[in-house]
Amino acid sequence: MRADRPDRRIHFGGDYYPEQWPEEVWAEDTRLMKEAGVTMVTAGVFAWAKVEPRPGEYDFGWFDRVLDNLSQAGLRVCLATMTASPPPWLTRLHPEILPETADGRRKWPGGRQHYCPSSPVYREYATRLVERLATRYAQHPALEVWHVGNEYGCHIRQCFCDESAADFRRWLRERYGTVEALNEAWSTAFWSQQYGSFDEVLPPRLAPTFANPSQQLDYWRFSDDALRQCYLAELAVLRRVTPGVPVTTNLMPHHKPVDAFEWARHQDVMSLDFYQDPYDPDTHQGAALSFDVMRSARGGQPWLLLEQAPSAVNWRPRNSPKPPGAMRLWSWQAIAQGADAIMFFQWRQSLGGAEKFHSAMVPHGGTGTRIFREVSELGRELASVPEIAGTRSHAGAALLTDWNSWWALELDSRPSTALDQTQINRAHHRALFEAGVACDVLPPWGELSGYRLVIVPNLYLLGEDDARRLEEYVEGGGHLVVSFFSGIVDGCDRVHPGGYPAPLRQLLGLRVEEFWPLDEGASVSVQGAGPLGAVPGSGVTGDLWSESIETEGAETVAVFGDGELAGGPAVTRHSYGSGAAWYIGTRLEPAALRGLLDHVREEADVRPVLPGLPARVQATVREDDEHRFLFLLNHGDGEAVVRLPEPMRDRLGPDGSGPVSTVTLPPRGVAVLER
Length: 675
Hints:
Layout: E1 11-16, H1 24-36, E2 40-43, H2 48-51, H3 61-72, E3 76-80, H4 88-93, H5 120-137, E4 143-147, H6 162-176, H7 179-186, H8 213-241, E5 247-248, E6 250-251, H9 260-264, E7 271-273, H10 283-297, E8 303-307, H11 326-336, E9 339-344, H12 370-383, E10 397-400, H13 403-409, H14 421-434, E11 439-442, E12 453-456, H15 464-475, E13 479-483, H16 505-508, E14 510-515, E15 523-528, E16 539-543, E17 547-551, E18 555-560, E19 569-576, E20 579-584, E21 587-588, H17 590-604, E22 617-623, E23 628-634, E24 640-650, E25 660-665, E26 670-674
Parallel strand pairs: 1-2, 1-9, 2-3, 3-4, 4-5, 6-7, 7-8, 8-9, 10-11, 10-12, 12-13, 13-20
Antiparallel strand pairs: 14-17, 15-16, 15-18, 16-21, 18-19, 19-20, 22-23, 23-26, 24-25, 24-26
């Protein structure tokens, strides 16, 4: 990661909490880390109270010894800024930093992240600590990368205290300039909400009925920005004191409070915490979408899996261990989709505290356990293929999503409260994933010219400029698929005039007259030909949503087969310029959506990484000028046989084995092949 350290490797390790253990354990830790193949640990995440036991009094001596021990063992450190959990003395001296809920209840210490993101007091104490930390360890040989904060927005998504209210008013002044512009943006003529000055504006606290939706949307934006300002305050110190050390912070999957695309602008490398659920048979598909977001957010740059569990977690209602081979499979999936580090929470399993039943690389049972054996085997495997680090993937398809639209879509007072942006995105991404198609995930303002196929699962909020860019993309020869309830409102959550979906009507060649959301558990039949993957003359079903669509130049590909909309268009295709734009007016059942997207892919000449893959086998490619790696991962319960397009070397096979033309993958099996 550091430019001044050109050694090529996939980093491997976990969160290290020596402060939880007597010092005589530390030597054993470094010995076992070397045995397990660890190359890097994350240290200091929750060490604030230990290094600053009283305000302004610092005790770094013990942490000096920790870093020195790690360095002497040849280990690198992802060094946390220690600001994720304020110490008890800080909230005793300054209770005003504690966050409040929308109904005015205070969140108290006793857990973690108990701070208001807008608090200047919190930021002052946090940056003071970071200044000391960065100055002390700027030249330490173990320092590999800075880890700022921890899982921003995990527990405090939004704060509604008076400090946040004042910060919100400042944010609104910068955004709108005048209160008249704010009134226009928020449509305050409705329900007598006009403001005479910014001083009258409050956060969207608990109200008698629906709060102003534009106000709620802006508060999501503000809250994301307030969290980011905490990060940026620490980043500024690190940039000044240690300009050559890369900086990251660990995001979480499908995490609504934090806009990954905006945060990517301020990170040197993206990092993700992802905890697969062994009880979910499709957990790997949710992981695939999150991994694609991480890789795409910085233009295909490799990213870091900064946390996962070696086995069970502690925070689900029921916490299953990972069965044998699952940890290895899911770790390799992250690498296959662009990760250059495989890290765990945590190194040594805690004896006390809220996470004592969360698994660790060294479990309560010690080294004579399945977990430690599997972890050590993975460490050896990763060390055998250092050339993977730095390689990249390339995709012919892109999926568009936008946090602003997500925030707006899931507010109250909508045609349906059942719309879930994550589930809508996953359904469309899954159709590509199961087809073995590489996919990038971009914001609507991302560069689209390099993609032959672009999919819009839902962009309820779509600005005129982004809609125009979609027009230009299709006009230039691109293939676009847009699903229901897209292009409805502008950036202030005001309906575009001119009929739904006004900014996309010309491109899609249609008009949506009315929305017909479906009742819970209800479905509607959809009659269509081959593109839906149905037998001619038969139909498929849609659920969740339907729309009354009138074509204005588009070709009707499939119609609703029953209900009030029977005979009306359900799926359309519109030739536009040199390309084509498709529209889907319901949530198609998975097989039908897969069939439709397969059809559009063939039109767009977007091919799978490896044709003819067995079901639940994933194939990806990472490459550079010198190497091309093909990853095969069997997420199924049965053996899978994959025929290769040409003989390749199995990099995880026995030393000295020759090229192979066929690979047999056991359940949860992995193969890494090089041409």
